[in-house]
Each structure stands twice: as C-alpha cells, then as structure tokens.
C-alpha cells in the first residue's frame, strides 16, 4: 500500500531527527537547569519514543485478525489520543513547577539566576530541525490527502516543539538587555515561569485539537474533514447519479481506513440494484 509506505518512511526520518533533538535537549538542560528547557527536552524525548511507537503501530494496524477482520486501524487514533493526553500532562506539570519557583522568589526572595550561556545556539538549531521536520511530515501527509492520523499528530507535535524553542530563544535574547540589578532584574530569577507560561498558552491548542479529532475517529464518528468529504462525495455522486437521483453518502475515517456508506432515499428495482453493485467496484477503485 503506497500510503503506508509514505507514512513509514516519514516516521523513520522523524525517529532519527527526534533522537538527535532529544540528545541535544538533555545536554542543554543538564547544563543550564532551566525548567522551560526541561519542557522542551522532555517534549523531544516524548516525540522520539512516540515516533518509534508510531512506526510499530503503522506496521501492525493494517494486519487482519479473527477479532479485527478489517485490520486494527483503531490503534492509529488511539495513538493520537494517548500522545495528546501525555503532552497536556507535560504542559500542566511544567507550568506548576515553574509557578512554584516564581512563587518562592516573590514571596521569600529565594531563587537562582538563569544560566543562558548555551541556550541561543541550541534554540536556533532546534527551531530549524523542528520546523523542518514538521513541514516534512505535513508534506508527506499531503501526498496521501492527509489521511494519516499519525503524521497529523507528529507534524503538530513538531511545530509545538519548534515554537517552544523559538519562544525560549526570544526570551533569552530579551534577558541580555535587562540589568540584573535593575527594575526588571527579577526576570533573571523568574523568567523561566513567564517563558513556560507563554509556551503553554501557545502550545495547548494543538494537542486538544488532535485529541478531539482522534476521539471522533476511534468512536466511528462521521468525518468533519470537508475537503475529504467533498472529494469522495463528488466521486460517489458522479457514479450513483447515473442510476438513482436521490442518494447521499457518509464517510467514517479510522486512522487510514475509510468507510463510505451510500444511502438511497428512493425505492429501487432489481435492475437498478444490479447496476449499483457494478458501479460499487468502480467507486472503490476511483
């Protein structure tokens, strides 16, 4: 299946790139101790582990068993759900951790100056890698009409990771223009909290979007993808209109498995029924 091969190749590239990003993130967090970088680092680690897992799911989801004669395609939206929940948990945990640090500084005057020395080279490299990978995964998914739930989750995760690195880089550049002893000197102690808060606000929309879409897929909801619906519906109508005048279709997408239900709203003769059976194969091939 060409679509699956494209998905598998994209996930292989993602696995290698995410491994490199993860190693870089661990090193820079270990060097600086900045919590926002911990968020970035763990995000990259999750991306690497989940990409490897996604590669496995991509291979086994199309396998048919006695229990799942059409394949285990539900694993693909299930992956989207679990990854989204993990990302949301991570965002929440990072916000709470940095809030505690800022709280201790403002209330008790306890805190440490942020070490920003290696941050700029790191963030610049990560922005290039993450956005580059996100664009790559998005383009690969476009090749297969955006039918891959896994690549959708991956590309959005890549962009979130890139936005986090970009936000950290901008914040660090701004800190260089702030005097530690000046009125805004407190940002050298609490800037981690403000950076993380902005990153959480920017990033939270995407995992929620993937979570909702994946839940719809795994619960066999009719697809809300208008582009997909219009494309398939136009093909169905082109063929069915030659036999019947009144019909409509429903499209249910589960991972890369698509079910098209054609509903007839008029009584048909045996002759029309036979013709519909003939064009069903034509519709399928199209």
Give the secondary structure arrangement, pairings included.
Blueprint: H1 2-32, H2 35-60, H3 75-108, H4 119-143, H5 149-175, H6 187-203, H7 205-218, H8 226-240, E1 247-254, E2 257-264, H9 270-285
Antiparallel strand pairs: 1-2
Helix pairs in contact: 1-2, 1-4, 2-3, 2-5, 3-6, 3-7, 4-5, 5-6, 5-7, 8-9
- Let me know the average pLDDT: 84
The strand line-up of the biggest sheet is: 1-2
Main pleated-sheet profile: 2 strands, antiparallel
How much helix is in the residues? over 70%
Give the CA-CA distance, first to last residue. Answer: 15 Å
Proportion of residues in β-strands: 5-15%
- Using the alpha-carbon principal axes, give the shape: elongated
Low-confidence stretches: none
How many β-strand stretches? 2
Number of DSSP helical runs: 9
General description of the model:
- The structure is a single chain.
- The chain is mainly alpha-helical and 286 residues long.
- The chain is built from nine helices and two strands, in the order H-H-H-H-H-H-H-H-E-E-H.
Offer a quick outline of the entry.
Helices cover 72% and strands 6% of the residues.
């Amino acid at each position: 299946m060409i679509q699956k091969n494209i998905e598998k190749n994209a996930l292989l590239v993602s696995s290698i790139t995410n491994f490199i990003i993860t190693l870089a993130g661990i090193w820079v967090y270990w060097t600086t101790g900045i919590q926002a970088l911990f968020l970035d680092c763990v995000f990259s680690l999750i991306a690497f582990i989940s990409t490897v897992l996604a590669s496995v799911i991509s291979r086994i989801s199309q396998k048919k068993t006695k229990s799942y004669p059409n394949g285990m395609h539900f694993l693909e939206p299930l992956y989207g759900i679990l990854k989204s929940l993990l990302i949301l948990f991570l965002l929440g945990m990072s916000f709470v951790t940095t809030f505690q640090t800022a709280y201790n500084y403002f209330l008790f005057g306890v805190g440490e100056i942020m070490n920003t020395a290696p941050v700029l080279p790191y963030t610049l490299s990560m922005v290039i890698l993450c956005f580059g990978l996100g664009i790559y995964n998005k383009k690969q998914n476009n090749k297969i009409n955006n039918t891959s739930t896994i690549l959708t989750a991956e590309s959005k995760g890549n962009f979130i990771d890139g936005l986090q690195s970009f936000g950290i880089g901008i914040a660090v550049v701004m800190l260089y223009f702030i005097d530690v002893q000046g009125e805004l000197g407190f940002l050298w102690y609490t800037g981690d909290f403000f950076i993380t808060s902005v990153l959480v606000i920017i990033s939270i929309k995407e995992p929620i979007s993937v979570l909702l879409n994946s839940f719809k897929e795994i619960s066999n909801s009719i697809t809300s993808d208008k582009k997909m619906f219009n494309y398939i519906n136009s093909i169905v109508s082109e063929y069915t209109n030659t036999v019947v005048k009144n019909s409509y279709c429903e499209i249910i997408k589960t991972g890369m498995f698509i079910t098209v239900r054609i509903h007839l709203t008029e009584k048909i003769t045996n002759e029309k029924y036979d013709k519909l059976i003939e064009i069903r194969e034509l519709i399928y091939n199209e």
